[in-house]
Design goal:
Blueprint: H1 2-12, E1 16-18, E2 21-23, E3 35-39, E4 44-49, H2 59-63, E5 66-68
Antiparallel strand pairs: 1-2, 1-3, 3-4, 4-5
């Protein structure tokens, strides 16, 4: 579960905003329509949650659960 621990580290270190508000608690829930702003090493991604899956799936399954609002470099 490297992805989950990496995501938690981003949140804890203050690199994630939910609807424009900095979030520092990895357990904070999100809902459909929320906009996540994630500051990565050399870019910022802005994602809008459009759905949730019942079970964990592969990357292509996950891509339909959010809209990318920012252009990736």
């Amino acid at each position: 579960m490297k992805a989950r621990s990496s995501a938690a580290a981003l949140v804890t270190s203050g690199h994630v905003r939910i609807n424009g508000v900095r979030e520092t608690s990895p357990g904070h829930g999100v809902k459909t329509g929320d906009v996540l702003t994630i500051a990565l090493d050399r870019s910022v991604r802005v994602l809008k949650i459009v759905g949730f899956a019942e079970r964990r799936g592969d990357a292509s399954s996950a891509r339909v659960l959010y809209d990318e609002l920012s252009a990736r470099p």
